[in-house]
UniProtKB/TrEMBL annotation:
<feature type="region of interest" description="Disordered">
    <location>
        <begin position="322"/>
        <end position="355"/>
    </location>
</feature>
<feature type="compositionally biased region" description="Low complexity">
    <location>
        <begin position="128"/>
        <end position="142"/>
    </location>
</feature>
<feature type="region of interest" description="Disordered">
    <location>
        <begin position="126"/>
        <end position="158"/>
    </location>
</feature>
<feature type="region of interest" description="Disordered">
    <location>
        <begin position="1"/>
        <end position="27"/>
    </location>
</feature>
<protein>
    <recommendedName>
        <fullName>Methyltransferase domain-containing protein</fullName>
    </recommendedName>
</protein>
<feature type="compositionally biased region" description="Basic residues">
    <location>
        <begin position="1"/>
        <end position="10"/>
    </location>
</feature>
<feature type="compositionally biased region" description="Polar residues">
    <location>
        <begin position="344"/>
        <end position="355"/>
    </location>
</feature>
<feature type="compositionally biased region" description="Basic and acidic residues">
    <location>
        <begin position="333"/>
        <end position="343"/>
    </location>
</feature>
Length: 355
C-alpha cells in the first residue's frame, strides 16, 4: 500500500493545531471534556470538589487559557453563532485584538464581510508581553486587506470618521478586558479614571445593531467582578440597556469553567416623549415635565418567562393548564356545533324519511 499523502496536523506549544479552522474551539473542548463530569458540573461546589482538586484543575486551565488568549481570543466562537453574523452582516469590529480571531473566523467560515479595528495590531488583546500600546508599528497599520476582510489600526473614533462603516453592525468581543486610558490633553494632568472602550464606541456609533460577546449583568460567577462581569464595563452596559433592547441571547457552547459568556444582539430603540403640563395651582411646579419611554415592537420582545431545571415544572404546569383550557374550549365548541347540526337535521326531516 502506498503512503498517505495527507499531511498530519502539527500541534503548536500553545495547544492549537495547524490546519484547524477553529483551533481555539478544538483545544478548549479537548481540555474541558478531559475533566471528570463532576468537575465540569460542580467546579465551585465546596462539597463535590476538594480544594486540592480545584487548585490543580484551575492551574491547568489557567496555563492553557492564557496561551489560547494570546494566540486566539478571549471567547470561543462555535458553528451555532455563524448564522447570526451572516444575518446581521456586514460587520465592523472594534477591539479585534492582534489575532483578529473572530473576524477571520466569521469571514473564512461564513464569507461574512468584516472590517476590524484595534489600536494595537501587534499586542491587542494579549495577556502576556507588554501592556497594550496605543500605537502599532507603522508597517502594520493594515493587515489581510482582501475582499470581505479588512483589518486596520484604529479605535472607537473610526466609527464616526469612516463613512463607509457607520451603517454596519457593530461587533464587540470582550471590549473592556483591558481598560483604555482616558486621552487627556498633554498639557493637562492625565485623568486617572479609566474609560470603557465599549462606552467610547457608543459615543461614535450611529448604526442600529450591536452584537456583544462576553458576560453581561448578573451572568458572572465571579463575586469580585459581579454584577457586570469580566468583559464590558458598567458604563457601557448601562447605556446599552438604556438606548438599545436585546432581541437575541445565546449561550456560547464552550466556556471555561469560571466563565458564562453569551452572544447577544441589541437593536437601537425608538423613543416616545411624553409632555405633562404642570398645574397652575401648584406654585412650585416649574411648568412642563418631559419623560421618555422606549418603544419595543412585540416581535422584538424577548420572552420573560424563564426557569431553572429545579423549578421548571412550575412554568411547564402553567403552560399545560393553558393548553388544557384551550383544548376544553375546543371540545365544548365542537359539542355545541354537533348539537346544532343534529337539531337542524331533525327539523328538516319529513314523515317516512327517518327510516
Amino acid at each position: 500500500m502506498g503512503k498517505s499523502k495527507k499531511k498530519k496536523q502539527q500541534q503548536h506549544s500553545n495547544g492549537v493545531e495547524r490546519g484547524d479552522s477553529n483551533p481555539l474551539l478544538t483545544a478548549q473542548r479537548k481540555f474541558i471534556t478531559s475533566l471528570p463530569k463532576q468537575a465540569r458540573s460542580h467546579f465551585f461546589s465546596p462539597t463535590h470538589i476538594t480544594p486540592e482538586q480545584r487548585a490543580e484543575i484551575w492551574e491547568d486551565q489557567a496555563d492553557l487559557g492564557e496561551k489560547l488568549v494570546d494566540s486566539c481570543a478571549w471567547a470561543t466562537p462555535d458553528p451555532r453563532l455563524l448564522p447570526v453574523f451572516k444575518h446581521f452582516g456586514p460587520i465592523v469590529e472594534v477591539g479585534c485584538g492582534a489575532n483578529a480571531y473572530w473576524a477571520k473566523w466569521m469571514h473564512n467560515e461564513g464569507n461574512v464581510d468584516v472590517v476590524a479595528f484595534d489600536v494595537s495590531l501587534n499586542e491587542g488583546g494579549k495577556i502576556s508581553g507588554s501592556k497594550k500600546t496605543n500605537k502599532s508599528d507603522s508597517s502594520n497599520k493594515t493587515q489581510n486587506k482582501k475582499k470581505g476582510l479588512v483589518i486596520r489600526e484604529g479605535g472607537p473614533e473610526m466609527l464616526s470618521e469612516d463613512p463607509d462603516i457607520n451603517d454596519r453592525t457593530l461587533f464587540l468581543c470582550y471590549p473592556d478586558e483591558d481598560i483604555m486610558p482616558s486621552q487627556a490633553d498633554e498639557s493637562e494632568e492625565q485623568d486617572s479614571r479609566p474609560l470603557s472602550m465599549a462606552a467610547a464606541c457608543l459615543e461614535h456609533y450611529t448604526g442600529d445593531t450591536i452584537i456583544h460577546v462576553g458576560e453581561l449583568f448578573c451572568d458572572t460567577l465571579s463575586v469580585d467582578q459581579a454584577p457586570w462581569g469580566r468583559s464590558s464595563a458598567n458604563e457601557f452596559q448601562e447605556r446599552l440597556g438604556c438606548e438599545y433592547h436585546c432581541i437575541l441571547k445565546m449561550k456560547l457552547e464552550n466556556n471555561w469553567l469560571h466563565v458564562r459568556d453569551t452572544l447577544s444582539v441589541w437593536k437601537r430603540s425608538e423613543t416616545c416623549c411624553m409632555v405633562f403640563q404642570g398645574s397652575d395651582e401648584d406654585e412650585e411646579d416649574e411648568g412642563e415635565e418631559e419623560v421618555e419611554y422606549k418603544y419595543i415592537p412585540p416581535e422584538e420582545m424577548l420572552p420573560v418567562d424563564a426557569a431553572a431545571p429545579c423549578v421548571a415544572h412550575l412554568l411547564k404546569k402553567k403552560v399545560d393548564n393553558v393548553k388544557s383550557r384551550e383544548q376544553n374550549n375546543v371540545n365544548v365548541n365542537e359539542e355545541r356545533k354537533r348539537k346544532r347540526n343534529d337539531e337542524a337535521t331533525q327539523n328538516s326531516q319529513i314523515a317516512g324519511n327517518a327510516w
